[in-house]
Design goal:
Organism (chains A, B): Actinoplanes sichuanensis
Order of helices and strands of chain A: HHHHEHEHEHEEHEHEHEHEEHEE
Strand content of chain A: 5-15%
Radius of gyration of chain A: 26 Å
Protein name (chains A, B): LacI family DNA-binding transcriptional regulator
CATH architecture of the largest domain in chain A: 3-Layer(aba) Sandwich
Oligomer: homodimer
Keywords (chains A, B): DNA-binding, Transcription, Transcription regulation
Number of helices of chain A: 12
Helix content of chain A: 40-55%
GO molecular function (chains A, B): DNA binding
Number of strands of chain A: 12
DNA sequence: TTGTACGCGTTATCAC
DNA sequence: GTGATAACGCGTACAA
């Protein structure tokens, strides 16, 4: 008899499928079939279920994956530098919705992985060892991370349009262009004619799309009415100040995020412009802050819960080998006091 | 020959240790030894390293774990309800420090898992499949989750003292009692004699300890000077209002967190009390908000980076089978304008 | 120092 | 419908 081998660290002591099979008086195959909902005789099924409860069996995910089972875990790739990984409340909220939605499908784990910096690459290497499908947030227009992933045939689902990768990675996006268009059209319907815009970052799809929607609806386009922002409160303040200077006659400002809109509101107040009498202000996202400002913000709501559900279903499809595809969620204009 | 079996889903196409061995002209054992830093001949080592780079080999974590290797992943258990999982910026910041610290040890953090509610239990079940060691935040005084974990002999390291489990779970904590004591002693050294306190939640170790430190230093104890808070801004406002009503003659307020202290500051302003002239205000945590208030907050700093490093080393020790143990980090009084 | 072979726990296939 | 067993990729004890 040759050498006993393979004794790594002590076994965790957890019940295995063999223990269950023994307790139920059936073979491991039958237990596995019960576990996975495959056809099994009635008597066997009951015996197995009793044994399952009795032994407190918990499946070993590593063994499942090694044997080729569908992943029950998902990696979460946020394309920002590591120090801003969990810093965005909006992203965290969506992440939470995704956790819930995935949980309902018996899928878990969301490995927070940062984006493209040098240390981030190391973390991604670690993540790669798990071979999980990827849920990606804040995909930039070009990213080595994304190229790497699609090159390794990792199933990826993006939150937002993965510009340049639409055929390789599935995605869910909201109709940013349409939302911005609706907002600006609404402002015009209320008689506003000189409508300024504080854009989002131009290297993010949302930034590009919301500006496009603005241009769709604004009528005559005046460069003096466009200032670029960065989705931050401070950025909103600065941008509004510039806008007020460049185009003192403006009667409305559309900010591409509620957080920036809050900054716009304060800048207007400091500049002595009344909102909404002198200047109407529109936001985007229907973030919590939208009802925390005075006046409350007219904004564009994205249905985040359903959004997360769609991300989950897209991910499941992708795991099961379907081709990449995109879905677009509708948006809703929410009118409050700022217009 | 009996049936070919075990063909799950298509192989991911990743290079395996066998591919590397073939490319290097050595056996898999040798490759494994190189990978794990075990003694290997010089020629073999170089050949393997070349093959490693050439094949783009990435270890399969699931196979590693199944074979008994040390876990390269850690589960993150936050003992709050699911909807508050990523909602606390302080926790997120520490989480990030832990991510960094663990990453330096080639360990990746994984799986934000919520605490004790009914749906949370389901998520923990999922997490259990991975059999990861656990990094625990906000451990309440009594928790089925913790009992479950220690019962299953899962290595657990807590952030803060795991009251009632000190012998079963390792932990890192800062000296909350001493920090509070220093703060109150400092206030007294500046001539303050009627010092109120806004405590943290009394079912959290930090809340209990910081109040104890207050009692250590305050001298005569007056119940009218104690109001319980919940670590939130709004809670700080409410508590300060009550304090000002109950003890109009107070000349200082120690809030058990900076966020609450910010609320105290605003409540004082509304009540017409000048800070620090009429009322000195002390906080705790040295959170970002501590330098965002007017005046800036005198507070107690916890060395979070080193704290995270200690959490990591405690975790490693625990994984390697050492007994549970606790370490206490020192704190530092930071004096700013609010006193 | 290096090669060989077993075992980790699960899934899926084959034969009954 | 059920049992037996190969295969997943890796770590390691043992033999050479």
């Amino acid at each position: 008899m040759s050498g006993r081998a393979g004794a790594g660290r002590p076994r965790s002591g957890r019940a295995t499928i063999y223990d269950v099979a023994r307790a139920a008086g059936v073979s491991v195959g039958t237990v596995s079939r019960v576990l996975n909902g495959h056809p099994v005789g009635d008597a066997s099924r009951r015996a197995v279920q009793r044994a399952l409860a009795g032994t407190g069996y918990v499946p070993n995910e590593h063994a499942r994956r090694l044997a080729g089972a569908r992943p029950a875990t998902v990696a979460f790739l946020h394309c920002v530098s590591g120090d801003r990984l969990l810093a965005d409340p909006n992203v965290n909220a969506l992440l939470l919705d995704c956790l819930r939605s995935l949980g309902e499908q018996q899928i878990m784990m969301v490995t927070p992985v940062p984006g493209d910096g040098p240390p981030e690459v190391a973390v991604r290497m670690l993540a790669a060892r798990l071979d999980d499908p990827v849920l990606m947030f804040s995909a930039p227009l070009a990213s080595p991370a994304v190229d790497d992933l699609v090159g390794r045939h990792v199933p990826v689902v993006a939150c937002g349009t993965p510009l340049g990768h639409e055929r390789r990675v599935s995605y869910v996006t909201s109709d940013d262009r349409e939302g911005a268009r609706q907002m600006v059209a609404y402002l015009r319907s209320r008689g506003r004619r000189r409508i300024g815009v504080v854009t989002g970052p131009m290297d993010l799809p949302g930034g590009v799309e919301r500006l496009a929607g603005y241009r769709d609806a604004v009528g005559a386009f005046d460069p003096a009415l466009v200032v670029h922002g960065d989705y931050t409160y401070a950025g909103g303040v600065t941008a509004a100040e510039r806008l007020l200077r460049q185009a003192p006659d403006l009667d409305a400002i559309f900010a591409a995020s509620d957080v920036m809109a809050a900054g716009v509101l304060d800048a207007c107040a400091r500049a002595g412009r009344r909102v909404p009498e002198d200047v109407a202000v529109g936001g985007y996202d229907d973030a919590p802050i939208a009802v925390g400002t005075t006046p409350q913000l007219t904004t564009v709501r994205i249905p985040w819960r359903r959004y997360a559900d769609r991300l989950t279903s897209q991910l499941l499809r992708r795991i099961d080998g379907d081709d990449a595809s995109g879905v677009v969620m509708p948006v809703e204009l929410i009118v409050r006091g700022s217009t």
